[in-house]
Design a protein that fits this description.
412 residues; 39% helix; alpha/beta
């Protein structure tokens, strides 16, 4: 069992045909492998967003019905995210994007840094969990320490992080899963090392959360971020942390805005329609396993474990079939991965393969996908390669079409 799967599961049952019927976007017939960049959205999410934005609603309050409606949406979203991540609802912060949240928190945390402090980043991460920390450290005069990963396996081991920790380490920023290779570092083991060094651990869970049951406390992260638009929701992001930690942080904000936690980290009027859509997406995830019962948290754990089982079965088949195609090169062989694959065809431009697959009704983009350091470390430069990612709606027909298209391209 993976470290993030610490809670008991129930019988697993994923009916892909039932799930796919809720996605109007699939009616075009496209096989979507572009989920790592943003998933398709089920009808119930769109309906929840429409209901919220067209309802009688106003700024949050406790007097009028419109105020109470807005407040109820916010509270419901915090509760839903808490259930999804196994985190305290009072520590859930809503934001525009994971990049925006990282910039906000890096600037806030850097207020206490000085020239003696060290900040650790990894080459495995999306640039949104690298550049904000580098820039904040530069402003504070702090030192950046880099953690590399194995170029062949794609592994980033706890000992790799341990090698750069010191008594001066203030923070370690690391991904829960690489958006380029799918690699899932052992976050609980890394968290223990980081905390023994007296530092904070900031985990980018954007690519992990759509594919696994996440337990915030078991992971050991001090701060964890993810993006609903990667797990069937609208374009926004959320952050989870211990409310006691958040209470110690003082972000720059308007004088008249609330100083309560978590509101002090949310600037301006919240987008209630996006929050309603986020709640609907989480409720949809909780229903993926029809056999699951109990609380929403219990149903989410069961459903995400069932989803992981489904995706892994398809991914293992896909990897085996593509690995047998002459000329196809697969990157990364980490022991624990999300169903995410980076590949290229020898002597061919990956962007050309991307365009070729598009003519076959298969969406599998090429690039470095903001994981610039990882792509460069692999020797792929900023151009990267073709990325294939599975989602809850991926099925056998999608796999067959992708393999057929890549095989045809490799032979041409």
């Amino acid at each position: 069992m993976n470290p993030v799967e610490t809670e008991s599961t129930q019988s697993m049952s994923i009916d892909i045909a039932r799930i796919r019927a809720h996605f109007p976007g699939l009616a075009e017939g496209t096989a979507h492998f572009d989920g790592p960049g943003g998933s398709q959205v089920p009808d119930v999410v769109g309906a929840a967003m429409a209901d919220a934005i067209t309802s009688s609603i106003s700024n949050r309050g406790s007097v009028t019905a419109a105020e109470k409606r807005a407040d109820a949406i916010v509270r419901a979203t915090r509760a839903a995210v808490a259930d999804l991540l196994g985190a305290p609802a009072g520590g859930v912060v809503f934001g525009r994007s994971a990049t925006q949240l990282c910039y906000d928190f890096s600037r806030t945390l850097a207020k206490s840094w000085s020239a003696r402090d060290e900040v650790v980043v990894t080459r495995l991460d999306h640039d949104s969990n690298i550049r904000p920390w580098i820039q904040a450290a530069e402003h504070a005069g702090a030192t950046i320490r880099w953690v590399d990963f194995d170029k062949v396996t794609g592994e980033l081991e706890p000992q790799d992080v341990a090698a750069v920790l010191s008594a001066n380490t203030a923070l370690v920023a690391i991904t829960g899963a690489s958006n380029l290779l799918g690699t899932r570092p052992d976050i609980p083991a890394i968290a223990q090392l980081v905390h023994e060094a007296g530092a904070l651990l900031y985990v980018d869970g954007v690519h992990l959360t759509p594919h696994a049951s996440v337990d915030f406390e078991a992971l050991g992260a001090d701060i964890f971020t993810c993006s609903p638009y990667k797990f069937l929701g609208p374009h926004c992001a959320v952050l989870a942390a211990d409310p006691q930690l958040l209470d110690k942080l003082e972000p720059d904000k308007l004088l008249s805005s609330s100083n309560e936690v978590p509101e002090r980290f949310e600037f301006g009027t919240l987008p209630y329609e996006l929050m309603a859509g986020t709640t609907a997406a989480i409720d949809f995830l909780a229903g993926l396993d029809e056999a699951a019962s109990g609380s929403r948290r219990e149903r989410l754990v069961a459903s995400m474990n069932a989803l992981e089982e489904h995706e892994d079965a398809l991914f293992n088949q896909l990897e085996g079939r593509l690995g047998a195609v002459p000329g196809v090169h697969l990157y990364g062989q980490a022991a624990h991965r999300t169903p995410t694959m980076l590949l290229s065809v020898d002597g061919r431009d990956s962007a050309e393969l991307y365009r070729f697959l598009a003519t076959k009704g298969v969406n599998a983009p090429a690039g470095s996908f903001y994981a610039l350091e990882a792509s460069r470390w692999l020797g792929l430069g900023d151009a990267g390669a073709l990325r294939v990612g599975l989602a809850p709606y991926s099925n056998q027909d999608d796999i067959d079409r992708l393999v057929t298209g890549i095989t045809e391209f490799a032979k041409s």
